[in-house]
Amino acid sequence: MERQKKMLAVAAFFVTVGLIIGLAISSNLNLFTRGYTQEVKISKESIDILSKMNQAMSEVAAAVKPAVVNISLSQTVHMRNNPFFDDPFFQQFFGNEFRNPGMRRDYKQYGLGSGVIIAKDGYILTNYHVVKDADEIKVRLADKREFKGKVVGVDAKTDLAVVKIAASGLPVLQLADSDKIKVGETVIAVGNPFGLNQTVTSGIISAKGRADVGLADYEDFIQTDAAINPGNSGGALVNIMGELIGINTAIVSSSGGYQGVGFAIPSNMVKTVMESLIKKGKVVRGWLGVSIQPLTAELIKQLNLKSDKGALIADVVEDGPAAKAGLQRGDVLTQIDGKDVTDVSALKNIVASIAPGREVKVKYIRDGAEKSASVTITEMTLQAQRMLGQAENQFKDVSVQNLTPDIKRSMGIPARVRGVVITNVAEDSPAAGILTQGDVIMEINKKRIANVSDYSAAISKIRSGENALVLIYRNGGTLYITM
To answer: How many whole angstroms separate alpha carbon 126 and alpha carbon 110?
Structure first.
């Protein structure tokens, strides 16, 4: 019996070994190939659906491309010679070429961008930063014709500009109602990234109503993941009907190239600015006559508010529109002209878009009670801005954005540093020569600044005639500056 068991075990062993060898031989001889190479068929329904999608996208691109132009420009940059070149040591190598340290030397700088034709008689929309300080502008159409461009008007506060060329019968893009767009909708971007004419990319609307980005004074950006790169600025962002929903303006990137986050100025804002620039050569904005600040968690609690939506009036200009309507410091604005005030940026955009002279209804909260009033909006003039006090003047035309981890890495800023980074200081800003691009504002008057909302709240509290103590991070260290 024991011997029989052993023989069965030995037989089972050889059978197993035989099976393993057989499988190995079969594998080498491709005997099982048939089972793994069965043809995978795509259904006719799937092919039809994808074909229709391809055809639709191609048709939209074909309809849009003729109205998108290439903008090239040149500008003269002035430099003065370095005094070190007047040293005899340098003259041994360079001769007299770099002598006279105070002498100005000029050279040409060239740039590229995109534009969108919005009128058959040659009016073109683009970004202000594309044509800023340009000596000469050349516009190249999709059919390769070239024209000399003339700047009709610019608006640095929204980063928009209108250029005119001497042409007629041009293809144009119709402006859509950007208030009706929805997150997730398919969009197409057309422009000239890196000088590559008529480049088409697609994606979706990632978000809308983006503010506090630090790119302009008035922000209401559409965020998209459609590829936008240098040279796309001023180009078109369109919906599936080929209508213009935005002007591509900027990207968020640590490398300088596309990383999935792009911003476009919405068509409704574009339309208001464009019409004003064409008719008057400048943008006429409405003015309410208040200094405002965002609602923080502490303020919401102190004011006993039921919602975080709205904007707090920090000050009211004497004899201004708001003062004449009975609005007071401490009131929380919740609605203007039938539009909800969600935050400070929304309030600025709504008021700016109202034509001066119009009477609008304003809803606000005072001492926990909802109230309303009628306000006659006036024009936002330089004098009107000055009436808001020292706070706006000190930091006027200083653009900032949140200090993200990506920005920290790209600029080599330590992780411990918190604040907002300055993206631009206009030449005529009171802060020019004091603050500079790349500075990180960490504190204002001993108040820590964590984000753009903190920054806006801090500067809104500075009264006329007051100095501001600003802590900044610059060149590897921190220092205090008095504004």
So the answer is: 17
> Would you state the pLDDT for residue 409?
85
Is residue 78 part of the annotated active site? The answer reads: no
What is the length of the chain? 483
Catalytic residue among 72, 178, 206, 233: 233
Confidence (pLDDT) at 84: 47
pLDDT digits (tens, 9 = 90+) for 357-403: 999 999 999 998 999 999 999 987 766 665 554 445 578 778 888 88
Give pairs for 353-361: CB < 8 Å, separation 24+: 353/269, 353/272, 353/285, 353/286, 354/286, 355/284, 355/286, 356/284, 356/286, 356/287, 356/380, 358/286, 360/336, 361/335, 361/336, 361/337
Low-confidence ranges of the chain (pLDDT < 70): 1-38, 77-109, 254-256, 382-393, 428, 463-465
- Give the number of other Cβ atoms within 10 Å of residue 384's Cβ: 17
Among candidate residues 72, 114, 129, 253, the one labeled active-site is: 129
- Helical residues (DSSP H) of 65-189, grouped into ranges: 88-94, 128-131
- DSSP per-residue string spanning 426-477: -TTSTTBTTB-TT-EEEEETTEE--SHHHHHHHHHTPPTT---EEEEEETTE
Spell 24-62 as b/e; 16+ CB within 10 A means b.
Answer: eeeeeeeeeeeeeeeeeeeeeeeeeeeeeeeeeeeebbe
Judge whether 230 and 212 are in contact, CB under 8 Å.
no
- Domains of the chain with CATH codes: 65-164 (2.40.10.10), 178-280 (2.40.10.10), 286-385 (2.30.42.10), 389-482 (2.30.42.10)
How crowded is residue 250: how many other Cβ atoms within 10 Å of its Cβ?
A: 22
Q: How is residue 175 annotated by DSSP?
A: B
pLDDT of residue 383: 60
Give the 3-state secondary structure of residue 183: coil
Answer whether 262's CB lies under 8 Å from 236's CB.
no
The answer to whether residues 327 and 316 touch, using CB atoms and an 8 Å cutoff, is yes
Instruction: State pTM to two decimals.
Output: 0.69
CA distance 177 to 187: 14
Which DSSP letter does residue 214 get? S
Nearest alpha carbon to residue 405 among 219, 252, 228, 250:
252
367 tagged catalytic: no
* Cα 274 to Cα 154: distance, rounded to the nearest angstrom: 9
Query: Residue 212: its pLDDT value, please?
Result: 72
pLDDT, tens digit, for every residue of 187-243?
A: 999 999 988 889 999 999 999 988 877 778 888 999 999 999 888 999 999 999 999
Classified as helix, coil or strand, 90 is helix
